[in-house]
Specification:
About 40% of the residues lie in helices and about 5% in strands. The protein is mainly α. Strands 1-2 form a two-stranded antiparallel sheet. The longest helix has 19 residues. It binds zinc ion.
């Protein structure tokens, strides 16, 4: 079993996941919030704006955007951010 550091709370846990078991449900809620928000948004948003409007932490948004799950949502973001996006 491999130990990982949780991307949300920083605790160590034994799993191959990004986040610890107690943060996993929070991640799921944040992802749902973001998806709903982006699904209903027809104007490009910067990451800062997205974070501000959706209430999801910028650090977590960055992490989600790197996953395959969110790859199709990247086109809804503008490029003026600290995330490298190929538009
Ligand atoms: Zn955690």
């Amino acid at each position: 079993m491999k130990f990982n550091k949780c991307s949300r709370c920083g605790c160590f846990f034994a799993s191959a996941d990004d986040v610890c078991p107690s943060c996993k449900s929070k991640d799921a809620i944040d992802k749902n919030t973001l998806k709903n928000f982006l699904d209903n948004s027809d104007v490009p948003l910067s990451l800062d704006n997205l974070s501000f409007k959706s209430g999801v932490d910028l650090k977590n948004i960055n992490r989600y955007m790197e996953t395959k799950e969110f790859s199709s949502y990247k086109k809804l973001l503008t490029n003026n951010s600290n995330l490298k996006i190929n538009l």
